[in-house]
């Protein structure tokens, strides 16, 4: 099986990225791996879809550092191949990284992923589903009981009114973004620098204001779901607690959050089950939930991370389970051909 990982850029990949570990797991199971970036697609006049894929040559890397070095040095070769020579296109980019600097690239994976799926490639997560989940507004499509009370606006007066209505505090953040960038806790409308916070956070568009959950002081829990269900092996769940640095409301590890082991309670599993119907309907093969108390703060559908940290905490590398799931999808595709839609196949 040949798996193509779609990423923002090869230069930007890191050893601690989940994508790197997924690629290593695929190689370890005997699959071919290549990387594709937003500028690598070509739709030719004969309607064939071509990709300029960065491929590996020589011994298969077994460590993250070796893999990334191999992708970036002379051992890597750019091959022009028909998309039909790829079995699985794994969309693992973060659109928010490209939204400002090169907006054309932000949703290239989603757009060309549609074309790849039409040509028989298994594309995960399903590009049609991802097209409807391009920012944090996606969470609003799930039952009200699973999410904090929320306001989405660019009006500072609307936001001031929302703050007044929630005396325990409000979390303010961009609707489009990731990694904990421009996330602020507002205690009241009298916050001395509220105008400056508003200007900083709204520079990227709409703002999302959520009621502050006091349980957030202990951090949030990142829980992976695969095929709509919690990812688990031998009683161990693919989950961790992300503890914020002292004085910081953000638990993102890109923002100095610390990973710790997490207890996945029956209540958390019941919460995840409430999301399953829509995630399956949307073809969301692999997602990361950010959970505080009994609420979902975010549903990460593009490139959820933390697999290496989970492996370090529990000694279980769930990357292998994810690759095995892709192998199963390929077996189903061989049996059924294109009679099953990509969106259906993505979560089987």
TrEMBL record:
Reaction(s) this enzyme catalyzes, per UniProt: gamma-L-glutamyl-L-cysteine + glycine + ATP = glutathione + ADP + phosphate + H(+)
Cofactors demanded by this protein: Mn(2+); Mg(2+)
InterPro entries: ATP-grasp, ATP_grasp_subdomain_1, Glut_synth_pro, GSHS_ATP-bd, GSHS_N, PreATP-grasp_dom_sf
One CC-aspect GO term: cytoplasm
Short name of one Pfam family: GSH-S_ATP
ATP-grasp domain ranges (all copies): 136-327
Domain of life: Bacteria
One term of GO molecular function: glutathione synthase activity
Pathway: Sulfur metabolism; glutathione biosynthesis; glutathione from L-cysteine and L-glutamate: step 2/2
Keywords in alphabetical order: ATP-binding, Glutathione biosynthesis, Ligase, Magnesium, Manganese, Metal-binding, Nucleotide-binding, Plasmid
Cited NCBIfam families: PRK12458.1 (NF009110)
Record protein name field: Glutathione synthetase
UniProt gene name: gshB
């Amino acid at each position: 099986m040949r798996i193509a990982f779609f990423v923002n850029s090869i230069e930007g990949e890191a050893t601690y990225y989940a994508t790197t570990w997924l690629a290593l797991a695929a190689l370890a199971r005997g699959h071919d791996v290549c990387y594709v970036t937003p500028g690598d697609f070509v739709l030719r006049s004969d309607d064939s879809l071509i990709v300029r894929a960065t491929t590996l040559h020589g011994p298969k890397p077994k460590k993250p550092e070796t893999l990334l070095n191999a992708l970036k040095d002379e051992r890597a070769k750019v091959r022009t191949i028909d998309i039909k020579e790829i079995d699985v296109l794994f969309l693992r980019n973060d659109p928010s990284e490209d939204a400002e600097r090169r907006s054309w690239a932000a949703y290239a994976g989603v757009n060309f992923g549609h074309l790849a799926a039409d040509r028989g490639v298994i594309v995960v997560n399903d590009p049609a589903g991802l097209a409807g989940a391009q920012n944090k507004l996606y969470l609003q499509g799930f039952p009200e009981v699973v999410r904090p009370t929320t306001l989405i606006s660019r009006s500072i007066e609307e936001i001031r009114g929302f703050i007044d209505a929630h005396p325990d505090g409000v979390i303010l953040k961009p609707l489009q973004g990731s990694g904990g960038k421009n996330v602020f806790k507002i205690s009241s409308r009298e916050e001395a620098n509220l105008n400056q916070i508003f200007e900083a956070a709204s520079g990227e568009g709409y703002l999302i204001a959520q009621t502050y959950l006091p349980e957030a002081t202990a951090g949030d829990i990142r829980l992976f779901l695969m095929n709509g269900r919690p990812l688990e092996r031998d009683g161990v769940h693919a989950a961790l607690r992300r503890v914020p640095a002292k004085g910081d409301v953000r638990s993102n590890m890109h923002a100095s959050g610390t990973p710790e082991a997490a207890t996945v309670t029956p209540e958390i599993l019941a919460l995840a089950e409430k999301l399953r119907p829509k995630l399956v309907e949307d073809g969301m093969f692999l997602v990361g939930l950010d959970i505080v108390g009994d609420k979902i703060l975010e549903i990460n559908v593009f490139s959820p991370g933390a697999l290496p940290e989970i492996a370090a905490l529990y000694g279980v590398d769930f990357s292998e389970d994810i690759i095995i799931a892709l192998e199963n999808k390929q077996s189903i595709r061989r049996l059924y051909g294109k009679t099953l839609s990509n969106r259906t196949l993505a979560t089987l």
